[in-house]
UniProtKB/TrEMBL annotation:
Transmembrane segments: none annotated. It comes from Sinorhizobium americanum. It is an enzyme of class 4 (lyase). Keywords: Lyase, Magnesium, Metal-binding, Plasmid. PANTHER family: 4-HYDROXY-4-METHYL-2-OXOGLUTARATE ALDOLASE 3-RELATED. Its cofactor is Mg(2+); a divalent metal cation. CDD domains: RraA_family. Substrate binds at residues 73-76, 95. This is 4-hydroxy-4-methyl-2-oxoglutarate aldolase.
Amino acid sequence: MKTADLVDAHGEAVHFCNLPFLKLGRRKSFAGPIATVKCFEDNALLKAELQKPGNGHVMVVDGGASSRVALLGDQIATILKDNGWAGIIINGSVRDSAEINEMDVGVFCLSVSPKKSEKDGAGKAGVPVQFGGVTFAPGAYVYVDADGVLASSRDLC
């Protein structure tokens, strides 16, 4: 699965997320059905959702593009890996980037920050989220590789 090939083969059926993601982890490409969390500078809900079985889903997080605090660190990345998530896309920041980069995970994020987030549980899970010109709906599909992030309403592979 290459995103460039998917764009060539499916044209208007795929939507390109136009953001400059940092790519962390040893998993350089991943794809799957979408699960979502919308939260701002608070990762308690994200952690709770990632503790559920991932079953090959990709977690898509709208963190409001905050670069102030990290929504994911090495401990939550370990939860992601251990619970069978295909990867995670974060419209926001992560920390422990050196450790995450050595892990067998796929993490796309906007930036890094050493500061941890709040833990109040604010946010929503399982709702459509929008960033980078794309709406990511739970149950739709996302495809991620070195060239970028694509979303589609149906499975293309």
